[in-house]
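Progress note, project year one: complex with 2-acetamido-2-deoxy-beta-D-glucopyranose.
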Amino acid sequence: MATTLMLLASLLAFFCPPSSSSSSSDGLWAGSSLSVEKTGDVLTSPGAIFSAGFHPVGDNAYSFAIWFNTPSCSPIAKNCTIVWMANRDQPVNGRRSKLCLLKSGNLVLKDAGQINVWETRTFSKSPTNLTIEDGGNLILRNLEGHVLWQSYDSPTDTLLPLQPFNENSKLVSSRSQGNYSSGFFHLYFAPDNVLCLLYKGTEYSSVYWPSPTLLRWEAGRTTDNNSKIAVLDSLGKFSSTDNFTFLSADYGSKISRMLKMDFDGNIRLYSLKKDGETWVISWQIFRLPCRAHGSCGPNSICVYTPNLGRKCSCIPGYKMSNQSDWSLGCEPEFHLSCNQTEQVGFLKLRNVEFYGYDLNMYSNVTLKGCEKICSQMCGCKGFQFRFSKAHQPGGIYCYTKTQLLNGNRGGNGHCDFYLKVPKANLSFYNSTTVDSELQCSNKVQILELTYSRSSGRHENEPLEFVMWAVCAVGGIEFLAIFFVWCFLIRTRRNSSPKASNLLAATGFRNFTYAELKKATNSFCEEIGRGAGGMVFKATLSDGRVAAIKRLVDPNQGEAEFLAEVNTIGKLNHMNLITMWGYCAEGKHRLLVYEYMEHGSLAENLSFKALDWKKRFDIAVGTARGLAYLHEECLEWVLHCDIKPHNILIDSKFQPKVSDFGLSWLLNRGDVKNSIVSRIRGTRGYMAPEWVSNLPITSKVDVYSYGIVLLELVTGRSPAMGISVTDNDSPKEQTTLVAWVREHLGSAQEMETRKHEIIDPKLEGIYDEAQLLNLVAVALKCVQESKDARPTMGEVIEMLLHKEESQSISTGY
Ligand SMILES: *[C@@H]1O[C@H](CO)[C@@H](O)[C@H](O)[C@H]1NC(C)=O
Ligand SMILES: *[C@@H]1O[C@H](CO)[C@@H](O)[C@H](O)[C@H]1NC(C)=O
Ligand SMILES: *[C@@H]1O[C@H](CO)[C@@H](O)[C@H](O)[C@H]1NC(C)=O
Ligand SMILES: *[C@@H]1O[C@H](CO)[C@@H](O)[C@H](O)[C@H]1NC(C)=O
Ligand SMILES: *[C@@H]1O[C@H](CO)[C@@H](O)[C@H](O)[C@H]1NC(C)=O
Ligand SMILES: *[C@@H]1O[C@H](CO)[C@@H](O)[C@H](O)[C@H]1NC(C)=O
Ligand SMILES: *[C@@H]1O[C@H](CO)[C@@H](O)[C@H](O)[C@H]1NC(C)=O
Ligand SMILES: *[C@@H]1O[C@H](CO)[C@@H](O)[C@H](O)[C@H]1NC(C)=O
Ligand SMILES: *[C@@H]1O[C@H](CO)[C@@H](O)[C@H](O)[C@H]1NC(C)=O
Ligand SMILES: *[C@@H]1O[C@H](CO)[C@@H](O)[C@H](O)[C@H]1NC(C)=O
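Model obtained:
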């Protein structure tokens, strides 16, 4: 045994010299090696852009890796941006480990001089050499110049510009932020020629992109082209043969980029900023990290809030399986016996969704019916109860689940989960379910705003000049990019309508300050003022009329601003104002919106005759916009400042909610004053939670919406207050809510006394049933207790289905 080992060791020593014989900076020749112990043993590309060498990945653990040389870094400090690794899952010892290029042409990584941890299994009769190129490709060539092996063919978690991604390629995320070993998320070409993202855990796996609920063509993909090639070009355009494409936010040349399958299941494109010091995200697949499957393990829910990031939490009645590892999820604290069906109860988890693992799907069943089905099935852990009008008139679906995986909060609206628990513990668990806390902002900001149409107000000229000068330099540089953009947008316009979703995602533009200054004629026509800034009318170079909001005092870095704006820009609903783009240059932060000819609801209510039908449509449309914000996208996109000034009216008198997401944009990162001074909104429209220090949830918007409804009915503004004359003090003011309640004490009185509150501008012409319904809904929305208020989804149901509304509202 000992002699065999000695023989082996001497053989290895023969093939792999103990110290590297040549200077290794420009290439490794056959018969030489790189040693883990010599810091100088690195290969560097001709332009010094990339290096390859041993990089520490843990205590006395090293991997052979390729990294970027800018931002300047050192393997010793463990701070290099790694783009490839030979042995990510099997690090080598920090002593006597070597990368040897054997005379035979095989490239071998040896742990402590003995075990082959990794090899290329190449063979060449002629001498070979190993070099790294400026594109980050590590290439093994023979004397004739044939490529025997290259790192581009076996990417780890990163794809570099011009590195082809094909049928045999796969990006696999790393395990966690600091752990480079193989993680759970894969990017690959599926057998049907479509680029997919897969969560592949130890026990289960599921594809989560393109969305498994969409057909391929619905997701804008084609399965027709079987060449399966994707590539990120040098300007920042990614294109794949399945028709998936995207453009980097900083589309243009001479920028270092890398596309990375991140450990959290998201794919992000990173660009190196001009200063060469920081990587910024210039594109990502999901704005919502919880969209990735498997991020939280079984029986848990993924919740995302921008200030806390992604968070996992166990569902009620379950506890973490292993305190140190969320990927293992949670396990039940209780035991359910299968032959005692009457001993189980169901706990409602509102707006929670688990994807996959359905035992069965039942349509047209009642909640009670679904409970019965689930309680009689031993394997049923709970069910998803969905109300979906899109599919059929009854539209109710019950999905019984055997596994609770891919849990997610704030999924699609009208979807609640009912968890099976022992009846004895039901009330206890029910009391432990809490709404996740949400914050609108961290800053004192009680604004009284008017959306005026005063025109011709000029800016402070000297300041303006300085800003112009600063921006002009950048502006010229951006002009070229702008033309490319225009060209791309034009060409995409002509493509099929299915591509329009992609257009919405990528056609969203980055404007230059110079461009916007020109479009607004040097910011001369102010059309309003709102939270955080002034709004100007503009005509863009392509002829579109836009409203441009100029944020004052943005206390936010560029990268964060871009990330947030991209989130907001992606929200797409007919009752939300469309954002066309933004400008972030130096200190300037501008948002470009579509322009609404009819102005705001506030203006329309005070100066114009809005007939009843229009008012009712505005009520429903606004509710739809808000429901989309709250339920179908993300619960954290609270508006926090709903009022008639922020509801704009389009040419068909449909409402569009504006200024959403601004509360977040304006106040991100200012954590210092978080608790005391988190109030924002407008007096008269603000929910009581703001003052009473209770958690801020989407119900603050429901409250404000209720006030808007009352305003639609009465024509009275809560901000003005209502003078109560028959009081001791004639100047005392009461709130709009109190005033309406006073007049309409009970439902019976509502019928008879409604004329006392109705806006005289309606001249008595209205739909009586709709009006009573609207007032009833409004009063539900403005209840003191946030839990008593309906969700926006429920509001829509109540407005549209008066008959059903009774049962729905008592159900909560
Ligand atoms: C990385 O994660 C893997 C899998 O959990 C684990 O085996 C390994 O020890 C970790 N490595 C480091 C350096 O923490
Ligand atoms: C990495 O560490 C080195 C040495 O400590 C330092 O000079 C360099 O600036 C660091 N780079 C980054 C990107 O942190
Ligand atoms: C490696 O070998 C190829 C082919 O023999 C040669 O063209 C190239 O210059 C060599 N590279 C270095 C760095 O010596
Ligand atoms: C894919 O893109 C090509 C070229 O852009 C277009 O001709 C084709 O119709 C697209 N296919 C689908 C299914 O969208
Ligand atoms: C597939 O896509 C490639 C690249 O876009 C194109 O060259 C090729 O003609 C396509 N093949 C088919 C069958 O459409
Ligand atoms: C949790 O996981 C860690 C690391 O995987 C392991 O060391 C520990 O024993 C586990 N704890 C329990 C309670 O299973
Ligand atoms: C449940 O059924 C099993 C066999 O079917 C039986 O052994 C067990 O006693 C039953 N448990 C209860 C609580 O009835
Ligand atoms: C749903 O069930 C009810 C009562 O069982 C029945 O009257 C109705 O026709 C069903 N609707 C559909 C769409 O199947
Ligand atoms: C569930 O209920 C049973 C019976 O009342 C009780 O013994 C047990 O402690 C409860 N478990 C929890 C977690 O409340
Ligand atoms: C859970 O609590 C809510 C209010 O907190 C109540 O309306 C509901 O009926 C309770 N559900 C059960 C099953 O006890």
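The chain is about 25% helix and 25% strand.
The chain has a mean pLDDT of 77.
No further modelling is planned for this target in the current period.
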